[in-house]
Amino acid sequence: MIVSQRRHRLILVLVLAAVCLLSSFLEAKAAQASPNEAVVQMLQNGAAAMHQGKPADAEGYFRQAVAADPTLPDAYFGLGMAQLREGKAEESERALARALELNPKMTGAHMFLGIAQYQSNQIDAAIASLQEEVKAQPENVEAPYLAGHR
């Protein structure tokens, strides 16, 4: 029971850390030249809403970004993170899986896909996703812990 509570706390901490990372990442991405400034603004608005603790608003902005540019993995990643924060694990899985289809090396995407799968009680899939994160990002210290490598 204590281990389960610790894992749930760690997952919450990781999601909150991801919100901060997502915000920084999207702000840096938006600072780069972009062919579609409207999509960049949607991403920035979504990141800001996540940072302000408004995942439902963020989800709306990221959905707009996905609709405007369905080839942008960052939009799907943001959408998946917002949905994960809202407790919509199955929807989050779909968005994060799509982000990984578009960019298989997206930092953190395997880890958060694993968290979404864990929340959907897909333990084997969650472990596999977390192991993929360990392979892709060996410096990520949280992924091995969540995958069960102590």
CATH fold title of the domain at 2-105: Serine Threonine Protein Phosphatase 5, Tetratricopeptide repeat
* Beta-strand share of residues: under 5%
Radius of gyration: 15 Å
Give the distance, in angstroms, between the N- and C-terminal Cα atoms: 18 Å
Report on the biggest sheet. none
Instruction: Classify the secondary structure makeup into a structural class.
Output: mainly alpha
CATH-scheme architecture of the domain at 2-105? Alpha Horseshoe
**CATH homologous group name of the domain at 2-105:** Tetratricopeptide repeat domain
CATH class of the domain at 2-105, please?
Mainly Alpha
Low-pLDDT parts are none
Mean pLDDT over the full residue set: 80
Counting H and I runs of at least 4 residues, what is the number of helices? 8
What percentage of residues falls in helices of 4 or more residues? over 70%
Number of DSSP-assigned strands: 0
Q: Give, in order, the helices and strands.
A: HHHHHHHH
Shape: globular
Task: Walk me through the structure.
The structure is a single chain. Helix 2 (37-51) runs antiparallel to helix 3. It is built from eight helices and no strands. The protein starts with a helix and ends with a helix. Helix content is 79%, strand content 0%. The mean pLDDT is 80. It has a domain at 2-105: Tetratricopeptide repeat domain (Serine Threonine Protein Phosphatase 5, Tetratricopeptide repeat, Alpha Horseshoe), CATH 1.25.40.10. It has 150 residues and is an all-alpha fold.
State the main characteristics:
150 residues; single chain; Serine Threonine Protein Phosphatase 5, Tetratricopeptide repeat; mainly alpha
